[in-house]
Amino acid sequence: MAQYDVIIIGGGPGGYNAAIRAGQLGLKVVCVDKGIDGGDTLGGTCLNVGCMPSKALLHASEMFAAANTEFATLGIEVTPKLNLPQMMKQKADSVGALTKGIEFLFKKNKVDRVRGAGKIVGPGKVEVTGPDGAVTTLDAKDIVIATGSLPSGLPGVEVDQKRIVDSTGALTLPEVPGHLVVIGAGIIGLELGSVWRRLGAKVTVVEFLDRITPGMDAEMAKTFQRALTKQGMEFKLGSKVTGAKTSKTGVTLTYEPVAGGAAETLQADYVLLAIGRKPFTDGLGLESVGITPDKRGFIETDHWKTSAPGVWAIGDVTHGPMLAHKAEEESVACIETIAGKAGHVNYGIIPSVVYTSPEVAWVGKTEEELKAEGRAYKAGKFPFTANSRAKINHETEGFVKVLADATTDEILGAHLIGPQVSEMVGEYAVAMEFRAASEDVARTCHPHPTRSEALRQAAMGVEGWTMQA
Fold it and tell me: What pLDDT is stored for residue 38 in this prediction?
């Protein structure tokens, strides 16, 4: 039986960062990971079949769309031709390089790795079933569960990864669909839907709610939907999918209004089921240490501690946003707590991003949340149509909105829709971490001409002195 200070089950962003931090702090650590679909690469869903490959396709499809529509305006005359196999190859190459990077970091920080499915079999004990069926038992003072999540299913819609796919299957379609139907208007569905729309597919999004992207500030969501509609996406909101029948050439999808009404059908070449994700907690042996997940499969924690002594949980198996960077924050805090240090995560300042075009990014409270709390606030807004760099680059769609406390001026939330706002929202995350006022941002010199000036101008708008719009 191998003896460790910490055993980490799962090699995704939560697990591998926890392992690295443990190694840095001098703990003897092992990461148990079975790989995606039995593969041998680290990185979990995010690196292998999630964040990274989707961003590779989003970038490539954006370049393809630009070559078709924007290049001529810029005086660049080309006739682009889609080479889908090469697009998929460059995606795979990029992912491969990233997963090898984790292996290097494990060696650098003296992290052991055991391939296989980990199962807790008692206090401090994890049984690992390897790819060859061999069983190894590991022993440690502390165990960290970082097993992530899986795509959620829907009754009547059976994912076969051929005609009806989940997010994993949508990353490897063998052809550009004539018509792709996306079930779910959340971040994953809209990102992957936008990839295939830019490559030539007709895309229809069917959503149960009467709005897209739940959790996003309502004003941003409406602006975002208008932008996607202008690009050619069609939305059927307030619609409940009741079934999907596949054939060799396509799918017949049945849906009906949530409010009541006659059923309708859609004919699609492919259907993407993207209604969210569920925690991966089955088969982990939680019962052996007295842990009972809730009805949705989440593990209850208090500062990453579970109800079982010496067993911790981070990332998607716990409550909160299912985001790689949330898992990473928790991984550091959890390991530092195990090591006797002070671990902390500010859950109110975890940014969210939709990597479409335009991008949407936000951090902190929405207007709806502030109104529900009864908290008085002021808002400042600035459109990218008035931003010099955005104008020059022909990227004027969207705006920045800053929300600040009406009395103290503390920044409570920032909401951005526009060009590359994913790279800018971090400024407001830092400002909010230091509990800055909107005036602090408004009086901080920003380089000109940059899109980031929109962040400053929006902050000026909180007190009504926006200068460039």
Answer: 81
pLDDT digits (tens, 9 = 90+) for 370-423: 999 999 999 999 999 999 999 999 999 999 999 999 999 999 999 999 999 999
Same domain, residue pair 324 and 341: yes
- The answer to whether 123 and 308 are in contact (CB under 8 A) is yes
Say whether both 146 and 8 belong to one domain: yes
CB atoms inside a 10 Å sphere around CB 423: 13
CA 83 – CA 155 distance, rounded (Å): 36
Average pLDDT over residues 206-228: 98
- Distance from the Cα of residue 3 to its chain's centroid: 35
Residue at a domain's end among 259, 275, 291 = 275
Domain that holds residue 172: 164-275
Asked, for residue 187, whether it belongs to a domain, the answer is yes
Does the pTM of the predicted model rise above 0.85? yes
111 close to 23: Cβ distance less than 8 angstroms: yes
**What is the C-alpha separation between 66 and 291, in angstroms, rounded?**
51
Give residue for tokens 């069926």.
133
Residues 198 and 451: their CA atoms lie apart, in Å, by 24
Average pLDDT over residues 93-104: 95
Which helix or strand (DSSP H or E) is residue 230 part of?
Answer: helix 218-231
Query: Whole-angstrom Cα distance, residue 388 to residue 461?
Result: 17
Q: What are phi and psi of 391, to 5 degrees?
A: -65, -50
pLDDT score recorded for residue 37 = 84
For residues 179 and 141, membership in a common domain is answered with: no
Determine, yes or no, domain membership for 468.
no
* 144 and 8 in a common domain: yes
Total domains in the fold of the chain: 3
Same domain, yes or no: 43 and 122:
yes
Question: What is the amino acid identity at position 120?
Answer: I
Is 255 within 8 Å of 208 (Cβ atoms)? Answer: no
Residue positions annotated with a catalytic role: 448
N residues, the chain:
469
